[in-house]
Amino acid sequence: MTGLRRYVPILNWGRAYTRQAFANDMIAAVIVTIMLIPQSLAYALLAGLPPEAGIYASIMPILLYAIFGTSRTLAVGPVAVVSLLTASAIGQVADQGTAGYAAAALTLAFLSGGILLLMGVFRLGFLANFLSHPVIAGFITASGILIAVSQLRHILGIPGGGHTLPEMLASLAGNLGQANALTLIIGVSATAFLFWVRKNLKPALLRLGLPPLTADLLSRAGPVAAVAATTLAVWGMSLDERGVAIVGTVPQSLPPLTMPDFAPDLVAALIGPAALISIIGFVESMSVAQTLAAKRRQRIDPDQELIGLGAANLGAAFTGGYPVTGGFARSVVNYDAGAETPAAGAFTAMGLAIAAVALTPLVHDLPNATLAATIIVAVLSLVDLSILQKTWRYSRADFVAVAATILLTLGAGVEIGVAAGVALSVLLHLFKTSRPHVAEVGLVPGTQHFRNIHRHDVETDPAILTLRVDESLYFVNVRFLQDLIQARVTSGCAIRHVVLMFSAVNAVDYSALESLEAIDQRLRDMGVSLHLSEVKGPVMDRLRGTHFLDRLSGRVFLSQYDAWRHLSADGATAGDHGVAGAAGLA
Amino acid sequence: MTGLRRYVPILNWGRAYTRQAFANDMIAAVIVTIMLIPQSLAYALLAGLPPEAGIYASIMPILLYAIFGTSRTLAVGPVAVVSLLTASAIGQVADQGTAGYAAAALTLAFLSGGILLLMGVFRLGFLANFLSHPVIAGFITASGILIAVSQLRHILGIPGGGHTLPEMLASLAGNLGQANALTLIIGVSATAFLFWVRKNLKPALLRLGLPPLTADLLSRAGPVAAVAATTLAVWGMSLDERGVAIVGTVPQSLPPLTMPDFAPDLVAALIGPAALISIIGFVESMSVAQTLAAKRRQRIDPDQELIGLGAANLGAAFTGGYPVTGGFARSVVNYDAGAETPAAGAFTAMGLAIAAVALTPLVHDLPNATLAATIIVAVLSLVDLSILQKTWRYSRADFVAVAATILLTLGAGVEIGVAAGVALSVLLHLFKTSRPHVAEVGLVPGTQHFRNIHRHDVETDPAILTLRVDESLYFVNVRFLQDLIQARVTSGCAIRHVVLMFSAVNAVDYSALESLEAIDQRLRDMGVSLHLSEVKGPVMDRLRGTHFLDRLSGRVFLSQYDAWRHLSADGATAGDHGVAGAAGLA
Q1: Which of A6, A200, A547, B361 gets the highest tally of CB atoms within 10 A of its CB?
Q2: CB of B566 within 8 Å of any CB in chain A?
Q3: How close A191 gets to chain B, by Cα (Å)?
């Protein structure tokens, strides 16, 4: 691939674009557009922004991702978790509903886009790896709960706020008296309807004999039906005059050209949250993109994805949007509807542009409670507390990381939750590797294999202590090995040779090198020789560059069996007769 | 060992105490006492405390360590690096020379003792492992430079201060005009004399026919000679009246009973530095204790050492001292002089108590410049910049950790230096393991061994991709493996089986489990089966507790050779003929 084509994937798939692919992409685009109109309005509500921001954030970003992204079917735009993070970040620097709030959203999108772009250019995509699966799962689950609870006030028709679960619940409890009955009826029935659609509509349609794909797409149109029905109800009965909050006037316009606010204070306050949004968005998007790509044996380039998402966010910043990423629901619909190339995304953008110009008067009477219902039903599918049970059964360390992430995200906010989860999973990993599994091994009789003396019936020689180290040696675990060898040797007086079997040692850092030197020196002081066996090529290469091998009291054996043959013979004959022989020579 | 005897090691060695051991311990104690008098005064000067604090800090701590510590020969008391850390920590909360300063030193010793004790009781000694050897080496070297530079003002006889190298140099440059010529003469000649003693006296004495041990001990008495000579000079010529700063009146008393200041603000300000002092002190002490113990095939229990050092620091807090730990120089002298049991330490404490009561008038005229000279000569042996060159040759990551620790300790202070070193070495370690070595392997003809296809001439089968993963799988590196497999499989269309050879995979965390599930699912979507081979017992035990093995598209083979035989046979015959056969069946 030439340089330009590496950075602009459209130059690859664009040349081979066929009429058939065009037809497929167009059909997918129509379906996705219909689904995206209510979803975009809803996520803008969640982010605390005016409704049109959600639509604008779905237009230019999709186009830019189509040019720079590597996934054929990923649909980029506002998503639930990023909208929540946006509300949390901007809520700290501006009040919702002010001009400063919308300007800060542009700044956040710009910073997030810049960070993603830089990570892509400098190939720093691996930074996302610091988010372990349990931390992500815990964070997504807790975010889902936070989002659902944050929407209850729209269902109840009361004011409220807060960025943590206790704050939100206190705010709900305090304002409960102001609840609007009509809003509540709309909100509860929309929620119930959407849950029913999600759970029962598709099986019902299948029973009626519809093809699975049609049944699936129709059941995904549930939110559109709820939007239409409740909008008509408000319009027909003028419910907005009886206290039902509605979307109201949305400007009829293409995305405007906007300029983010670059005030140093604002940038300083938003750079941290922007980095978090970038990484979380990237992880979410990659997981969707790779799942879909694998189904068609296509490849996703993580560094190029960073560039694609970066461009999309910069696009959002200059066209009245807010931070975006590849969304799960919209991408799956796009894929299922038959999208073949990123052109489907471009057609979706056109569809949304037409909607922004022509259809916004239609949503004037749409109740916020309906939008809140679509959000609640969508995000509750993100909530999966079974991760607690799964990690508990698999590994306590992973369980602790999940539980802490969930509790802190709910109790102290999204940023602290993720930061604590990352820090904790790193510390727990280091702790686990700080006490490596070290097995004392002996020869399986009649073979050349060595196995744990506590699990197998093996031959040993009291003059030879053989330890198989099941971990790379590095600063966190070397002292453990040092203590273990010293304890073992001081308790067995016949020991004259210690053999470290390095078959599972993939690396030896400088601390470990010095520790091996110290172990050798201390064993020498006790009249014991240190040997190594089965050292891997890359480890041996490094050791050869030092004086360690020259000074080593013993030898490096290619195989453990060589070591055994040589050192047993040194004492006397191998096996149980070795003791007397060794003592005789010592 | 019963519970009490585990926590009070004196109950073990005390029962078997012999007359011979008593004689040996007594001789060692006399030699160590003589060496410790000037050293204690000097380190108190370095810590910014009155001279007697250094002596008091050597009495009760030694006694308590003799009861609770596990090393037979470790000598506990003030040491250079801990004195520097003390000065840095207390300098932030009180002015040198005030009563608050000395009280804060007691609080620091109390907090440090408490932290060590808690770490011992809860067996948290492994926390010290987070200090890698390069970070410790860099920190000790930078501390040596800082200490030496901090003493130049006593050699010059000028006021000054600062806790970083630039601050100290600026302070020296600003006050250079006030230098006292007589002080300078004393300081420079004492320094030159001590360097000469250190370098040339022992060889000279050996040439005169003295036994090596005697020569060694005499050459270590150099500081005592310098102290005596310069004190006599000041006394004889009344140099103190001509501007030479002297130790002055030191109270003639046993260590007083003192109470640390527990003001909440002070405790809050000192708890961080106290934790740092505890860990650095523990690491330094353990390294000395283990080196000496190994020479006599004795054992050090790290958790009990924490209790011993904790008791020693609590002792210092209540008897007018400041934070202490096991010192290298004093312990080596104790060992070389023939100390057999911790009783030698107790006798040293008695010797120092006698000195504190009877001998303090003798040091009234001792010039501070001489003490500064002993410190400079002692700490310059800590400075070892060769660590930069050694780590550069061995591993760039370790080099970066050393260089950053040295630069930040010198430029930004001891606390930031250590913290940055620890954080950096953890991040570099994670980064190294984030891109594990993965080798594509094939069968060495005529054997059952598999080797890297790029290094060896091996048999392969285009339908089988075998990857040997040389690292434990955990959240930081799983996405790398996922991307690598996806890239490799999408570029080789004949591949029908992927075998992951797990011989060097020591652990699989929950993130890696989920990634393996995702890899399996994605390969299945491409019509490829995933197999594992040579999975270790502990990893297999964990996988058996999940649904992973039930759902796996392929199989788990005991050995890679089994996998090869089975999967090649599945296609057709093994080796180069496999292609056609596999294609025929696919």
Answers
A1: A6
A2: no
A3: 32
Model pTM score = 0.75
The Cα angle at residue A279 between residues A278 and A281, in degrees rounded to 5: 65
DSSP class of residue A451 equals E
Is A475 in Cβ contact with B130 (below 8 Å)? yes
Task: Count CB atoms within 10 A of the CB of residue B18.
Answer: 10
Spatial contact of B121 and B137, defined as CB atoms under 8 Å apart: no
Per-position DSSP letters for A320-367, written without gaps between them: T----EE-HHHHHHHHHTT--STHHHHHHHHHHHHHHHHTGGGGTT-B
Q: Is A166 exposed, middle or buried (0-12, 13-18, 19+ CB in 10 A)?
A: exposed
pLDDT at B297 over 80: no
Contact, B368 vs B247, CB < 8 A? yes
C-alpha distances (whole Å) from A447 to each of A274, A375, A450, A458 are 60, 64, 8, 10
Q: Hey, are the CB atoms on A398 and B290 less than 8 Å from each other?
A: no
Give me the architecture of the A438-585 domain, per CATH. 2-Layer Sandwich (3.30)
- Supply B298's token pair: 């004795």
Q: From CA B477, how far away is CA A414, in angstroms rounded? A: 25
Cα angle B165, B166, B170; round to 5 = 115
Where do runs of H (alpha helix) occur along A435-509? 475-490
**Amino acid at residue number A27:** I
Packing angle of the helix pair A368-380, A181-196 (nearest 10 deg):
40
What single-letter DSSP state applies at residue A201?
I
Place of tokens 């955990």: B474
Residues of chain A by 3-state class (helix, strand, coil), percent to 5: 70, 5, 25
Number of CB pairs, chain A paired with chain B, less than 8 A apart: 199
| Interface pTM, i.e. ipTM | 0.76
Give φ, ψ of B499 to 5 degrees.
-115, 125
Say which residue the tokens 């040579």 belong to: B534
Over the Cα atoms of chain B, what is R_g?
31
Rounded to an integer, the average pLDDT of A232-246 is: 91
Which of A130, A133, A502 would you mutate first to test chain B, the one with the most B CBs within 10 A?
Answer: A133
The rounded distance, in Å, linking the Cα atoms of B77 and B54 is 8
CA B224, distance to chain mean position in Å, is 30
Q: Give pLDDT tens digits for B303-359.
A: 899 999 999 999 999 999 999 999 888 888 888 888 888 889 999 999 999 999 988
User: In the numeric block, which tokens belong to residue A192?
Assistant: 């119930």
Using alpha carbons, list the distances in angstroms from residue B48 to A360, B275, B373: 75, 20, 16
Nearest alpha carbon to residue A119 among A304, A277, A292: A304
Q: CB distance from B176 to chain A under 8 Å?
A: no
Interchain pair B294, A522: CB under 8 A:
yes
Q: Report DSSP state, residue A467.
A: E
Residues in chain A: 586
Sign of the torsion angle spanned by Cα atoms A409, A412, A415, A419: negative
- In chain B, where the domains are located: 19-424, 438-585
Give yes or no for a contact between B450 and B433, defined as CB atoms under 8 angstroms apart: no
Distances (CA, A) of B72 to B14, B331, B332: 11, 10, 12
Tens-digit pLDDT profile for residues B72-117: 889 999 999 999 999 999 988 888 888 889 999 999 999 999 999 9
CB A350 within 8 A of CB A99: no
- Residue B9 pLDDT exceeds 80: no
Cα–Cα dist A540/B267, whole Å:
49
Please report the pLDDT score of residue A162 as a whole number: 83
pLDDT at B63: 93
Do the chains contact at B525 and A479, CB–CB below 8 Å?
no
Which DSSP category does B389 fall into?
Answer: H
Cβ neighbour number for residue B574 with a 10 Å cutoff: 17
* pLDDT reported for residue B410: 95
